[in-house]
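Q: I'm writing up a methods section and want to include an example of the input and output format. Could you take the sequence below and give the corresponding predicted structure tokens, formatted cleanly so I can copy it straight into the document?
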Amino acid sequence: MGTTEPAIDDLFSEYAKKERKLNLPNVLSGLDMRPNTLVEPAGSTKSLLLIVSSYPTLNVHSSIHIKYGSVNDILNMSMFTLYAKLGLYRADICTTGAMHVNVIARRLDRKNFYNRLDNGIIRKLPNPLRTLWYEYSEKLIELSEAPGR
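A: Here is the clean output for your methods example:
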């Protein structure tokens, strides 16, 4: 699991099981529904910073942890850039951590998803899948003790 908090890990496991029960179309280009392409949240509910990002990519060149990944994959250039901007990539300058949540925990191949690349990729997900992960991310955000959330 991606965290050290049972509440976060249990919620992730619960929603991963719920996802497997969804009745989804099987011809979605760019949507890999294998369980190993789910991406776990990272951090602690007690962190002072809450990071909410949209979805992890399924680009084999963006990470060496495509399977069984967690959102805080610093080898992913996008995550490294984000964490560097926040000072979260260096333990000697970061005195607190962050809880990092993806709104959609499923990796998406944005270049092949429905053969289009645009800003509406999440809206193209089947409604039951999108609704499930929205609900999940909202519950994680509620668990966060970050000020101002």
